[in-house]
Amino acid sequence: MTINARVGEVTERIARRSRDSRSRYLERIRLAADKGPVRSRLSCGNLAHGFAACGAGDKAALAGDVVPNLGIITAYNDMLSAHQPYETYPELIRQAARDAGAVAQVAGGVPAMCDGVTQGQDGMELSLFSRDVIAMGAAVGLSHQMFDAAVYLGICDKIVPGLVMAALSFGHLPTIFIPAGPMTTGISNDEKAKVRQLYAEGKVGRKELLESESKSYHGPGTCTFYGTANSNQMLMEIMGLHMPGASFVNPNTPLRDALTREAVRRALAITASGNEYTPVGEVIDERAIVNGVVGLHATGGSTNHTMHLVAMAFAAGIRLTWDDISDLSDAVPLLARVYPNGKADVNHFHAAGGMGFLIRELLSDGYLHKDVRTVNGTGLDGYTVEAKLNADGTLRRDPAPAKSGDDKVLAPVSTPFQANGGLKVLKGNIGRAVIKVSAVAPERHVIEAPARVFHSQDDLQAAFKAGELTSDVVAVVRFQGPKACGMPELHKLTPALGILQDRGLKVALVTDGRMSGASGKVPAAIHVTPEACDGGSIARIQDGDIIRIDAVTGALEVLVDAAEFNARPLASKDLSANQFGVGRDLFAGFRAMVGPADEGAHVFGS
């Protein structure tokens, strides 16, 4: 099957735009590779420090410099449910490496915050910046240059993008990402959302809300809705950085452990000392980035990746834009319905055929680049499989099922849920924004209503509780961008706006903040750029202005005379309260340096 025309055209223009920066990047990593394993050039004092705490066998192996050494970058902590299973991984990896005649060492740990814990709290203002901290922390771990390859233990929202950025900085090293999998299914997402809405209306108390939440988030593993964490896992597989079929196997199972051991063996097999050298900087090329974007659209994935994929591509010398993402969305069909875009969770998606089915269907109609490099040593067609365990504990790969196990969750490409991915770039006199409408009813894809302006989500909450929001409204929540306060997610708004919509009102959100992978049934123009704190026109909007959000044509307009609108002064906000407490004072430099949302909102230049 030849590549889809739109997918091919977007890939070619990304390659043209990136020619110089990508060439410089490849030259840099190939120069690093040509120098060979650096450990051999460390001084005796350097090397003695590097293996001082190793056992006798590992120390002898490293001293002889004849076996590969695998660096482990871990984002383990036992407060974050998705990362708690990683506690036992280092020893599992070390033993698998010894069994393969090699050595493995933990090169470093990186922070891993849970956005679920910090939602609506001051700590959420560190969330986006944590991605860049993670990238830098992982780079520090690898800077000892003791390693021939690396494995990365990370799953959740900012962690995987940060780890990918670090891996690409060390692009000459072979790299495999090792997941830990989703928690088992708890109460239904519909039931959880219903209790949240009842709580927002004051019809149930905190006790009932906590009981509901605890039945949803109930054990080790990722949260089971299709937010950024599970979008990350989809991306790592469809971009060729996971072993095939590894993404959505539950934690603490024999199959999960077998996949981890296999990943270790494979990472050791693709070092420069063997015959299958596979540097990560060559795995992630323009085609792999496009495959990631296609996967995001086909599954209705997280809007956070309109920033993360741009930043990840940048780290590989590739210049991805929002227009590329939007144009691909117009061409790629939606094949998955996972909450919030449906009733199912990721366990249902996996059981229905999962990644193997999805990749095969997209390949069959030319939506994915097949002939890419992957850590598995195959093209992407090697990922059209399911991982299974034999009776003796060994792994096997079976072909993905010919038919979806549940056509309400996972559709074939011949009968998609909708013809496009439902993610659109909006443009107009307010600026540029993104909107995800795969969970929004078609009759709400165009909203025109008066603005009500807020400078925080707490202000909107207060207005809702006071009964002030009784008519059609476009809630404008500004001074929430990266320069203002780190661009927090604004999920505290979801129940209130959902209630207003359920009352029959026309409701929408316009914000320079984020709503992330849980963006749901209320149309939301998010990531508005330029942000209010950076001279953006969102700071000129006044209460009562008529705003039009059109996800069909891609318009984001305030319907005010242009001369009048442009003559208005920019509103301001005292942001001093956002600059201290829970470590925010330490991130002043990040707020000053961060780039705009459409360039990845990172601090690493442009």
Give your account of this protein's structure.
With 606 residues, this protein is of the alpha/beta class. The protein has three domains: 5-35 and 67-184 and 219-399, no CATH class; 190-216, no CATH class; 423-578, 3-Layer(bba) Sandwich (Glucose Oxidase, domain 1), CATH 3.50.30. The protein contains 23 helices and 14 strands. The protein has helices spanning 5-17, 19-34, 44-51, 56-64, 89-99, 115-118, 127-142, 159-169, 189-200, 206-216, 228-238, 254-269, 280-283, 286-299, 305-315, 322-331, 346-351, 354-364, 457-465, 482-485, 493-502, 562-567, 588-593; strands at 69-74, 103-109, 149-153, 175-177, 385-389, 395-399, 423-428, 431-436, 446-454, 473-477, 507-511, 524-529, 546-550, 555-558. The chain has an eight-stranded mixed β-sheet. The protein has a four-stranded parallel β-sheet with strand order 2-1-3-4. Helix 8 packs parallel to helix 15 (305-315). The radius of gyration is 24 Å and the shape is globular. The two termini are 37 Å apart. The mean pLDDT is 94. [4Fe-4S] cluster binds at residues 156, 223. Its EC number is 4.2.1.12. Its cofactor is [4Fe-4S] cluster.
Strands, helices and their partners?
Blueprint: H1 5-17, H2 19-34, H3 44-51, H4 56-64, E1 69-74, H5 89-99, E2 103-109, H6 115-118, H7 127-142, E3 149-153, H8 159-169, E4 175-177, H9 189-200, H10 206-216, H11 228-238, H12 254-269, H13 280-283, H14 286-299, H15 305-315, H16 322-331, H17 346-351, H18 354-364, E5 385-389, E6 395-399, E7 423-428, E8 431-436, E9 446-454, H19 457-465, E10 473-477, H20 482-485, H21 493-502, E11 507-511, E12 524-529, E13 546-550, E14 555-558, H22 562-567, H23 588-593
Parallel strand pairs: 1-2, 1-3, 3-4, 9-10, 10-11, 11-12
Antiparallel strand pairs: 5-6, 7-8, 8-12, 9-13, 13-14
Helix pairs in contact: 1-14, 1-16, 5-12, 7-8, 8-15, 9-10, 9-21, 11-14
